[in-house]
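Please supply some protein, with fold tokens.
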Amino acid sequence: MGLKGFVEGGIASVVAGCSTHPLDLIKVRMQLQGETTQPALALHSTSTHAPPHPPAPKAGPIAVGIKLVQQEGVVALFSGVSATVLRQLLYSTTRMGLYDMFKNKWSDPNAGGSMPLSRKIAAGLIAGGIGAAVGNPADVAMVRMQADGRLPPAQRRNYNSVLDAITRMVRNEGVTSLWRGSSLTVNRAMIVTASQLASYDEFKEMILKKGLMRDGLGTHVTASFAAGFLASVTSNPVDVIKTRVMNMKVEPGAAPPYSGALDCAMKTVRAEGPMALYKGFIPTITRQGPFTVVLFVTLEQVRKLLKNF
């Protein structure tokens, strides 16, 4: 299908991304709960022998959402939405289009045009990795714009738009800052794309083959929700580390809070326990489920509309 697959995937991805943006923002805020990236404060408290403060209880997604609206207004639920649109246009359009190309190339005509699960997974891994590398600058901007409201006013970056964020990152931190956390982004995208796209196709084929439902909205919703759940479970730990690495503030002349992904993972687990890697899982599944449903339902409808083109 060539270019058509990129167009269909891009339209579906932008619709899904904008529809679920507030849930993604809440997920990011939850993933940053409990993060300690101010060693100076920690040093000061130990030098004065002050008793350590007990950790603040972690708020759930509803509480985080209510607090966000109360403190920053309803509009804050769409902080960074311009970055989401750009991210979907770069990352998701690329991965969806490439996966469609691989699927058409690797499908077995003797098996009704279906593709073995192993090839679906391979197609998802390759497409996701390439898409993530292309879309990483928008991903960094999106994370920072979504997280900005949780910082004290003096520490906020106050980006006006995704273009302003990217321009200031390049000017203040260098071009390489646009690909900060890119290894994590690529790893996460490979996992998400392989589990999401491959499992959707597999679930859909299984439902139709067993005659459980006809090829229609019910099948698309069921297969896409199952794919969204699987993608959430497999990708959440990488997503937590990615969020923290991308959001870290590097002061001139000072060592960064994390030297890399492994260092971030170790510090997170050491300070907050292994389950910290599943922080934000409820909003992740709450967002990933609807996102995947909207993505594939929209994709199926767009395919019908563009069938004759």
